[in-house]
Request: fold
Amino acid sequence: MIQFGKSKVFKKTYFVLLGLVCCSFIFPHCSPENESPIKEPPPPPAVTVPFPEAMYVQNGCAACHGMVGNGRGTRSHLLSNSRVPNFQDKSTYIYGSTKEAIAKTIKNGIPGTYMKAYAHMRKQEIDAVAEYIQKMQR
Ligand code: HEC
Reply:
């Protein structure tokens, strides 16, 4: 009678088969049926890097407040009947010259004046512009 359990050939075949099964679990992509194109890694999430000077210009701040913050911008003459602060001179600020105070003014605006609320700007952006204005102070 042939005893499969004790046959050396059977044992060899058994181990080879066992090895193949294990391999197909460990390397499932090796078998041709599962071949799939290499997937690109997902793109990193979009990051807004505040570029304060660009935001100061793009949001129109420079037009009224001037490129250097002295209150003499390209549109300042249209605001002749209103007070335009001089960011360089802390004594001309009414609503505070700290970074926090400036950020609050930008976010809420000053009702009834040409200074509108920039509520659409992100906190990160507002803070960056506030810091930029603070650097104009002498
Ligand atoms: C259309 C013109 C105009 C634009 C645009 C404008 N401002 Fe103003 N801003 C003013 C005027 C006028 C005042 C003074 C309001 C008042 O009478 O108190 C003012 C006031 C301020 C103040 C308060 C200063 C204080 O007295 O304490 C800050 C800070 C300020 N602006 C920042 C900004 C920033 C930052 C931007 C752009 C995101 C901007 N402004 C855009 C006209 C403008």
Q: What stands out?
A: The chain has two domains: 7-35, 52-136. The helical segments are 8-26, 52-58, 61-65, 99-108, 123-136. The chain has five helices and no strands. Residues 52-136 form a domain with the Cytochrome Bc1 Complex; Chain D, domain 2 fold (CATH 1.10.760.10).
